[in-house]
Amino acid sequence: MVRIGIIGKTNAGKTTLFNAITMMNAEVSNYPFTTKDPNVGIGYVKTACMCKELGVKDSPQNSVCVDGWRFIPVEVVDLPGLIKGASEGLGLGTRFLSVAAQADVILHVVDASGSINAKGEICEPGMGSPLADYYDIEEELIKWYTKNLLENADKVRRALQNKSINLPSALYDILSGIKVTYPQIIEALSRTKLLEVPFEDWEEDEFRAFATEIRYLSKPTLIVANKMDRPVAEKNLNGLIETFGRSFVIPVSAEVELLLRRAEKAGAISYTPGDEKFVVKDASKLTPRQKWALEYIQSRVFDKWLRTGVDLAITTAVLKLLRINVVYPVEDAKKYSDRKGNVLPDAYLMPQGSTPKDLARQIHSELYDNFLYAIDSVSGIRLPNDYELRDRDVITIVTTKKRKT
Ligand SMILES: Nc1nc2c(ncn2[C@@H]2O[C@H](COP(=O)(O)OP(=O)(O)O)[C@@H](O)[C@H]2O)c(=O)[nH]1
Ligand SMILES: [Mg+2]
After folding, report:
1. What one-character-per-residue DSSP string does 55-94 give?
2. Final residue of a domain: which of 287, 319, 351?
3. Which of 10, 97, 109, 184 is the S-S candidate for 144 at Cβ 3.0 to 4.6 Å?
4. Same domain flag for 36 and 127
5. Which among 181, 213, 245 is the end of a domain?
6. Closest ligand to 224 CA?
7. Ligand 1 centre distance from Cα of residue 226 (Å)
8. What is the pLDDT of residue 295?
9. Can you give the pTM of this predicted structure?
10. Beta bridge partners of 295
11. Any atom of ligand 1 within 6 Å of the Cβ of 15
């Protein structure tokens, strides 16, 4: 399952964002998820469900469909304790950094309203610098990666002495555990021109340069410019966009999303995460305080930024940064159902470049072992085995024998 790591300075709003993301009324019920770690939860990627396009009534199993929107579960981890000096072990730093390294994609939360100082303490709005906060945390991450590599340098040297292995493979052996792929290692070596430097001549600068590339290549990162409901946030948002580009900065109000999800759960409003509006069910039942809060949310967030941005951040991180497509496997190509008659039961998140056989592997090892070919269920056309799955494909896998269970 795709794993999103939330990082950022103390008081930037990580836990608020985590709580908002992981709170949903319609949850996948039979989800095999048993962690007791309070910092790990389930969030959802929202995409337009194929039930609309195909005009069918679906019965989702591994995901949820709300008003034609398919919500697909992803794992979310809140990483507290990231402060300056974390890579040296301050504030449980190294433990949390190693958890961050297990993420596929990172949401880096900054306080766009500038209400936290360099230490992450609450201060006068506008006094703090989200840009400086971003770099402080990034520095800890890069230091951690560098340290990790330096600590394993002997292992790499020993592997290289055994002549059958080359540098990329030796590096892969120590980095694969923190979700770094072989092509990413090749790319990092090429960007830093370090293939031309014998490994025994690498000094701290070389390790750091390589670690920096590895950090960005292996953990694509989206900046969550949080607390956008506050007036001073706009200026900082513009600064972040100028520095990192519009595609990598999402204006967010995590606290507002959390309030809306709670109000929806309590039955006071109708609101689906990601919506560009919310509807008050019965205005006469609101207390003056609730009325004030909803007016604040309307004017400070929806009128100005269209949405809270929480759902957009997840969707952008998973679908755009990780280049993932949503694919619906079905056993009955005509009814778009599984053998029990559940229509469009499952939605799988497949990285770009995946083939039907990759999909089979994700579903069941038996399906993979007995794989013959796949059919595009919508057109009925048999697909070549090197076909690259596209977003919203509905796929039927044909095997040499019928599955037993
Ligand atoms: N105005 C506003 N305050 C927020 C928002 N998100 C979080 N906060 C506040 O920022 C403070 C720190 O939030 P928290 O989630 O505990 O930060 P963490 O230390 O990064 O986990 C709390 O007082 C939150 O209520 C937001 O979107 N808008
Ligand atoms: Mg927290």
Report:
1. T-----SSSEEETTEEEEEEEEEE-----TTGGGTGGGHH
2. 319
3. 97
4. yes
5. 213
6. 1
7. 8
8. 95
9. 0.92
10. none
11. yes
